[in-house]
Specification:
Helices cover about 65% and strands about 10% of the residues. The chain has 14 helices and 6 strands. The strands form 3 sheets. A two-stranded parallel sheet has the order 1-2. A two-stranded antiparallel sheet has the order 3-4. A hairpin with a 6-residue loop joins strand 5 and strand 6 (about 345-350). Helix 4 packs antiparallel against helix 7, helix 5 (about 115-140) runs antiparallel to helix 6 (about 140-165) and helix 9 runs antiparallel to helix 10. It is elongated, with a radius of gyration of 28 Å.
């Protein structure tokens, strides 16, 4: 089922309206109930009363901070789900949470986590270092990325637990940090976190990014799918969307595992022609293919493998013959020139 843009806009507007209602309720309700009309007067006709002070100096700043925290969590979840191609993923799966917790524990043990600002910087540094380590190990595939994140999270969680068991002060500090609270945070300077958020937002998307994405979508033939959710796409359409995501990064190296899976023959050849063009433009394209005829037609260097060992490698015309195909695939055949390209073409005889 296709979700059109007006319906998404209506859902967004409804969600924003609900957020406003909840925010007003959050400011009104507390140990001291305050009427919504009084909230308005606290800003439009400030009188310096106790209610006005509570609203302006405590409850509204806490509400805004809570909204920002929620938005940050939602954005981080969406980014992780996109990166791992898993709709249930969350930042902890890449070691973000474990890295931040380990840094807080280590900082507490070394006496470096005495203030809120210090805890903020420690948690940020720990999460960034954990993500960089996970990415350096698992960047080749989403599955490897997730496995590296889970492994690192387990190691850091074990080390953190050991420090908390041996050092009661570290346990107390970590307990208050991990539970979290908005109380008192309205008095803390938000300059550093807001500056970091602003820089991230400004550097997240640019005109150059827009150009790269549009060109990648056009090259992969998925421009007409731009307004559809990934969950609504067929297997072949999803495959082309993943390819577009890779192309948008404009990386000089492409590592592709069976990129033509789920595609019909037309899209298979269109995609392989695109990869050949990228190769001719100077990029390095390494792909795993099981269609030997497609490999011979589009690749300039083949590596034939069986049971984890390299059987032969070289230009298709130099290595592909009937003996190689029978050794690798156990398929009796003859190898003839492709009538269109002249490259080797395998024709089974049995």
């Amino acid at each position: 089922m296709r979700t059109d843009l007006p319906a998404r806009a209506a859902i967004l507007l409804a969600a924003l309206a609900l957020l406003v209602v909840v925010a007003v309720a959050g400011v009104s309700v507390g140990t001291r109930a305050i009427a919504p009309a009084e909230i308005w007067r606290a800003f439009a006709d400030y009188a310096g009363s106790d209610d006005h002070l509570i609203i302006r100096d405590v409850r509204v700043p806490r509400t805004i901070l809570g909204i920002l925290v929620g938005a940050a969590l939602g954005a981080s979840g969406a980014l992780i789900q996109t990166l791992t191609r898993n709709p249930l993923a969350e930042p902890g799966i890449l070691g973000v949470t474990a890295g931040a917790g380990f840094a807080i524990n280590l900082g507490g043990a070394l006496g470096l986590a005495g203030s809120q600002s210090a805890q903020l910087m420690l948690a940020f540094a720990g999460s960034v270092l954990a993500v960089l380590l996970v990415y350096s190990v698992g960047r080749t595939s989403p599955l490897r990325l997730v496995l590296a994140g889970v492994a690192l999270s387990s190691v850091l969680a074990g080390l953190s637990l050991g420090m908390r068991l041996m050092l009661p002060d570290v346990f107390d500090r970590f307990r208050f940090w991990s539970v979290g609270a908005l109380a008192g945070r309205e008095q803390m300077s938000h300059t550093i976190p807001l500056l970091a958020i602003g820089i991230a937002l400004l550097s997240t998307w640019s005109a150059e990014d827009e150009r790269a994405v549009r060109e990648a979508m056009a090259a992969a033939g998925v421009t007409e799918l731009a307004e559809r959710g990934v969950e609504e796409l067929s297997g072949g359409q999803r495959q082309r969307v993943w390819v577009a995501m890779v192309l948008a990064q404009e990386t000089p190296y492409l590592l592709l595992d069976e990129p033509t899976t789920f595609l019909d023959i037309t899209h298979q050849y269109q995609l392989l022609k695109l990869f050949a063009r990228l190769r001719d433009e100077g990029r390095t394209v390494i792909a795993v293919l099981h269609d030997i005829n497609q490999a011979c037609r589009f690749a300039d260097h083949l590596v034939a493998m069986k049971a984890g060992r390299v059987v032969a490698e070289g230009a298709p015309a130099d290595i592909v013959d009937a003996a190689l195909i029978e050794e690798v695939f156990d398929l009796p055949c003859v190898v003839v020139p492709d009538p269109v390209t002249g490259t080797p073409m395998v024709v089974p005889t049995a």
